[in-house]
Request: fold
Amino acid sequence: QQNPADQLVVSPSADLLARLARSNPYNTVTSFPLMLPERLQQRMQSVAIGNSNFVMAEAGFADAVTNSLNSRKICFAPTASKISDIVLAFTGSGLNNPETDIPNAFTAKVSVEYPLGSTPQRLYFNGADNVVVTPGRTFYKSDPLPINIPAGAQFAVKSYITWTGTLWSAQWSASQQAGEWTNRGTGLADNSLNNTVLANTTALQGLAPAIYASMQTPIPVVGIIGDSIAALAADAVDLAVGYNGWGRAMRGQIPFINLGRAGETFANWNTRHEGRCLILRNAVTDVIIQYGHNDIFLSGTSAATLLSYVQATADMFNAQGRRCWGVTVCPRT
Reply:
């Protein structure tokens, strides 16, 4: 919304939660008005996984020593809607300010465990039980898993990943709460279809798919782009809802995918963003745009130029039927 100082304002707070929860995702908003197309009601929407940055691999977390991992992440269906037809997906892009190709291909097998403690169910990619994710502006989606999960229920996503060379991992993603792990090693066996409890071998870095599902109730679904203020990787996880940062503010009611990356500038986003757009495409109703303080402080970008970046990015997402929310630039000295 516009404030009297002509700044775009949104904050990860109870106020944001209330405004998004109240708003009909098919109406217009003040900041960047656009009627969402009716077809979005029928499209798949994204489900937040149990952390902030687990979808997009980063150059800063590279593993050239081991060649395999098993992971288990505890995930949450939104409290406002039950979900069905889960789809898991990977991209061949990674975060490196700007976005770039991941260094090597990797092979992934994935499954969903629901109820927790039951035998996991395999997901397939065009009928195959694995997918090879190649570097580039690529995106690989599984076939839908016919499953129904009640609103607010927990489930687990399990991944078995192998690679040759170097694997980039994602931040804030290995083991944030009880029942989660990322177990790395050389020549590990696939544990994605059993209930073996594994030791966690890394404190922060892991890798798992983006998670999508059909919502049974139309609700807002939020994508977040920006720098460290968006990523909020240093914020502690609230175990009551399974999230840190923005997800903690959403209180488990509004699904989200956070693609913020520490140190990034709007200029970095402008250079390349296709991988993140593929993750968000046809999957969110709203996009929070949080860039600016790195541009101004590090690059000397003018306010006018920064606002033109915001408008151009909002125009792009508006054209796809998404509402956009701008964040006030944080002071920095």
